[in-house]
Amino acid sequence: MITKGKVTEIFCVIDEFDKNLDSELKKNLRLPNQDGNGKRYRNRKGKLSKSEVMTILICYHFGTYRNFKEYYQNCICGCFHKEFPHAVSYNRFVELMPRVFCKMMLFMKLYAFGKCTGITFVDSTIISVCHNVRRYFNKVFSGFAKNGKGTMGWCHGFKLHLLCNDSGEAITVCLTGANVGDKDIRVWNVFTKELYGKVFADRGYIKQELFESLFSQGIQLVHGLKAKMKNKLMPMWDKIMLRKRYIIECINELLKNKANLVRSRHRSIHNFIMNLCSTLTAYCFFNNKPEALPVYVEKSKQLELFAYRSYTELE
């Protein structure tokens, strides 16, 4: 069970971010409490602050409860009643969740996500929204969720494409339908905005056009070989780092099995997106994030060598 000290730590970080963001918005934006005709709108504070709402959403993903309603009624309104003395009813809290969507996205992007270090691991995982038997009767995600096949078989839902660095920090994500492949150029158009150096992937990313496109942008895609492919020489350092792909596999396992990323009872697309954002944000507060062994000297040499080769070939 998550401790009170951890809840206080998360709340302090989020509340500081919320205050700084509000101060910047007041300086640069016009407050929406009055329109051009002089009509005024109420902008009063609620019982729960936005920082408290975000904290409650993030703390749910520490693996204590598998059902959000039970977590809110038993944990927030029960064990943590002193920490959240103005907790509203469960139905009212669900109505308040969409109000913190923009701030949750900004906090995830600016605080939760890490930076690219030149060593990046990429992988994707399927997020099913319902059982395969009910995929033709699902109305919540009608037009959004797609049928796709992963390592565990067919499912109906979405696919989360994830990048992480050698420290186990998520860099960026891309959410697509389950029928979108890992080698889709639209996914990599999002990834290349954050990437440089070497990207280590599995055999599902083997594609000559993708490799050449990334190499022209100063990014080297390193992957294994299939059984019928011709063997090629690979530096020992690349082979070692390719074996450290367990990092991103462990991240996917933490997100699914501990942080409750996959849920089959979403009542709206907005709550699905909120659950995804709060899951990725909660991961940055985990104490057991996987990371690779430090190889700083060899890493710097390899990146300098790759940059020099790319520069000479472009000339």
How would you characterize the overall build of this protein?
The structure is a single chain. Helices cover 43% and strands 15% of the residues. It has 11 helices and 6 strands. The protein has helices at 4-28, 50-59, 68-79, 90-96, 101-112, 185-191, 208-216, 236-243, 246-258, 269-283, 296-314, and strands at 119-130, 146-150, 153-165, 170-177, 197-200, 219-222. A hairpin with a 4-residue loop joins β3 (153-165) and β4. α1 (4-28) crosses α2 (50-59) and α2 (50-59) packs across α10.
Present the secondary structure layout.
Blueprint: H1 4-28, H2 50-59, H3 68-79, H4 90-96, H5 101-112, E1 119-130, E2 146-150, E3 153-165, E4 170-177, H6 185-191, E5 197-200, H7 208-216, E6 219-222, H8 236-243, H9 246-258, H10 269-283, H11 296-314
Parallel strand pairs: 1-5, 5-6
Antiparallel strand pairs: 1-3, 2-3, 3-4
Task: Write a brief caption for the model.
The chain has 315 residues and is α/β, with parallel strands linked by helices.
**Terminal residue distance:** 58 Å
Characterize the overall form: globular
Uncertain runs? none
The overall strand count is: 6
Question: Strand-residue fraction?
Answer: 5-15%
Structural class: alpha/beta
Largest sheet: 6 strands, mixed
Radius of gyration: 22 Å
**Which sequence of SSEs, written as H and E, runs from N to C?**
HHHHHEEEEHEHEHHHH
User: Can you count the helices?
Assistant: 11
Query: Fraction of residues in helices?
Result: 40-55%
